[in-house]
Amino acid sequence: MTTLKAMLIVFLSFFVVNPSFANPKLQQNISIAYEDATLLDVLKDIKSKSKFNFFYDINEIDENKKVSINTENEAFENILDQISKQVNFDYTFNGNQVVLTAGITNAKIVTDAIQDREVTGMVVGPEGNPLPGANVIVKGTSVGAQTDFDGNFTVQVPEGSKFLVISYVGFKEEEVNVEGKSKVTVQLKPDAGQLDAVVVIGTRGKPRTSFDSPVAVDNFKIKELQKTGKTTVDQQLMLRVPSYNATEQPVSDAAAHFSPAGLRGLFPSRTLVLVNGKRKNASALVYSYVTPGRGEVGVDMKAIPSAALESVEVLRDGAAAQYGSDAIAGVINLVMKEDVDPFINTGYSSTTRGDGEQYQVESGFGIDLGPEGYANFTLSHMDSKATQRAGTITSVEDEAGYWGVTDDSAFNTSDLTSFLERNPSAGFQVGLPNMTITNFAYNLGFTLDKETNTEIYSFGTLTDREGSAPQFARVPYWVPGFEAIYPDQEFFLAKMAPQIRDHTFALGLKTTFNEWNFDVSSILGKNRIDYYIEDSFNQSFAGSSPSDFYNGAHEFSHVVNNLDINRTFYDAGLEALSVAFGLEHRTENFVTEEGEFASYGDGGSPDAQGGRTGSESFGGFSPENASNDYRSNIGFYTDITADFTESFLVSGALRYEDYSDFGSNVSWKLSSRYKLADDKLVIRGSVSSGFRAPSLHQVYYTATTTTLTTDGVQQNGILNNANPALRALGIPELDAETSFNLSGGFTYRFNRNSGITIDAYQIDVDDRIALSGQVTATGDPNSPIDRTLENVGVGSAGFFLNAIDTRTKGIDIVYSYSNIELGRGFLSGSIAANFNETEVQGTNFPAFIEDNNLGDAIFSREDISRVESWRPQEKVVATASYEIDKITANLSLMYYGSVTYRHPNDPINDATYGGKTLTDLSVNYAFTDNINFTLGVNNLFDVFPDTFAEAYASTGGTPQDRNLDFVGRFKYPWQTTQFGIDGTRIFSQLNISF
Description:
By secondary structure, this protein is mainly beta. 49% of the residues are buried. The strands form nine sheets. It has a 26-stranded mixed β-sheet that branches. A five-stranded mixed β-sheet has the order 15-20-21-18-19. The protein has 17 helices and 49 strands. The longest helix is centred in the first third of the chain and has 16 residues, at 2-17. The chain is elongated and about 110 Å long.
């Protein structure tokens, strides 16, 4: 037996050392000629001439090593020998695959690697899709293989070896124990930390990276976003994604507790948000205040703790045909963690003015649910204190003139002078609100059957948010009589103090049958806002008025059921053919609950000093406002991508949706990508149609608020679109918006560590839904306008309608670099920019509005500028992170372009607020692998937006329309917000993992 075994070893060794004997292909001769070329270029040429594939670890083999070789009709193996001497690698053969390993000079290592047993397997991605070309190597040896087009591999495992190492570009390397196993299936997880990380969003087939995707996609590792020092995802993205805007808004009712977010120059309603690829429910809030995003409905981006996320994917392209309504501007996918070590993160920040303190603590842990399961849990709490950035009344004369205070008034000019000496801001408070956020999130999955990749999964979030946002301070010459309940106060400052609850629960099952991947899921999402007004007053109740009011509630919920089926064919005569189709059924519910009587009613007190009713700053919802409305829709889609070659692909999607309230829609999308210059250059483009269904909020929302208008401070009503009174005004029922998207661009990889993407786009939106301006009474009691306003009990009213057609054009530029060796350390970062322009191309007013010259009231110059120029049209974000030993320094520069306000009817009150650059700086020190501390500063140089005084310097430092600055109470513009008014903020973070 010993002699037989020795002969077998010699025989096998002969085949390992001389694989050409076993493989006739090695007898072929080829010709190549290179002088100082990179190894990568040489191997690509050899591959094209010999049909052999090369397999190696780039951490072991320097593919940029220079090679010089000039042969003609030379044997294949002789060529490899010449190259290996120059680059110092060894090689072995596995079928038509050549495995390169670093510098093994002792041939005994190869001959001792006796192939003892065969292991077969399959490598798949997170959705169960096979990964062709994945590298499989026996740990500690040069024995390996690559997966075929179906993700399958066969490898001979030497005696004494038991681990396989599987790697694939864009995925985390996986180590698998195959001891006692002859067949394995390995599922790789995306690695969000790589420059070319695989993205889930925008594709349902063969995995893509952000550089070879046919459309623009960003992939942000959550650790990168947390470097901003911000505590919520919406503000973190604001400081990293140029085309994303989510400015915190002071003094704007409940909107002060949200941040209206827009993508690519479009407002919140046109960006779809997903969690783990599933539709996230919208907030119950309608942004009704006169600020950017007015009339919009968006997702509450504060509802999911960033600590629960692995990464955030941003698809910057129209995707309604793929994902349904709302995806006109793009899609944001929040990818939750699957596996995490126990951790505790704490953070603290404060402005240099000593206010706005923020405390945050986050904790989480992951557990294994058996060998094929995972569960991750995260709990976070954040407490944020208010800031004060109010201006001061410009003069007693200005204030007296605005309110009509005279020497003969009950509150005369002498009283006013004394009052302003004591209260130079007239009691006003402008800044961030008090806010506390408590979040819980979980994400779990368990494989029921490994052979069929059958997995049950679930994820969910629970959010509780409370706070108080100051509203307009009421002074005695505005709301007299409040002394009856505030006897020791010269003014009262009402506060919007909502209680916000946001819940998400998802349950699903994935499986594979005959190589088809099935995913069936159901998601329940709910957002509820209970409105409370504190420190307010109902004038009609006089001395019996409460000070605190319950004003009612809004609640939005949906149930979404999905069936998604996909498969990628690698044997269809193409490089790959990905086919996906499915259906979605969604039921939505929007509820308005009435408030207590004192919040909206007339107390009828004989001591009342004026005719105002309802709680000041925000009147409660009356029984007439209450509603409970439903709708449902069903959608069918198909999505096909054909990789004709490794370089060229074409993708198409088609979607049909049918809504119970407004009808049906068909949308489509075509996209393509072509690789050039050894795959370094990618040309890409897409064309698509899209739609956005009117939200239930926009159909049924109704409220009464106090705002500043050209006619002064006024109670404004918003009538729901289903109100028959609007039919009398000729306002039609809401219909869907439709869009047409064009995009084109290219990506270029300079090397493995750096690349650039440039994408231009044009988005046409027709029948765009907007909240109108206020229609006021004509003075004619027989006018339908006057009768309508009288019936609803407001001085003016607005409503939703398909008002305008817009065109948005822009360009996104992103240059990324990572792990650039510089001195003793490594440099990573990006330079990203967005330039966009939106133009209102036309209005769609019904005949009644045109005939009664109400066009300017419905959609004025101000409304046009809100769409066109209230958000920066240029935004540039440059980041750099330098890591050396245990220290990492982070620098960010953010340029926000100018914004322009246009007055509703008087151009002399127009103003432009100039562009600004903000600087963030932080330093992180890793005490150990498990403990690190960060100290940083946001807005290092204390930059603020231009003041009203600066913007209106040509007209004496104030606008002629004093509603704009409220006679100086607002120091900074509150309509055209660019980046917030905190000023310099210092922050610290301590992260501990176990």
